[in-house]
Amino acid sequence: MSNSVEIPFSTTLLVRDTCLCLHAQRAARALARLFDDALRPAGLTNGQFSLMMSLNRPEPPPMGPVASLLAMDQTTLTAALKPLQRKGWVSVMENPKDRRGRLLALTGEGKAVLATALPIWKETHAALDQKLPDGSSARLRQDLQTVSGMTDETLKPAGRRLR
After folding, report:
1. Predicted local distance difference test score (pLDDT) of residue 43
2. What is the pTM of this model?
């Protein structure tokens, strides 16, 4: 005798059609492919472009705020920095105010690569914005920022543990 639980196919269709997570993942993958393809001539992926752009500041930032901006933990950020360091585009240095911490900076060569990639990013972004209905790119951006600011605690149903 089987103890398997049968979930109706109609539930599968409901999740397919309504799951925000599924649709966000699909959109993220499509956007990642679009920008990866566009930025390839500059030698960057979309993730590397975002990471390098987050380092384009007047003063080298510590790892924590960069990781937070990119919604990743510091271990993942460290791994993402490695190929950029090997290419000589990013430097990681000791924080003089806290020797345990690290500061991140674009090198001159990294700034040059970013300068090459920026017009490609602008052109790709403009083409994408044109394909979306009027004003919807701003609304989409606003909605995505709202979702990224939510926490597990914000989303838990009352009296229910998700873990």
Report:
1. 97
2. 0.85
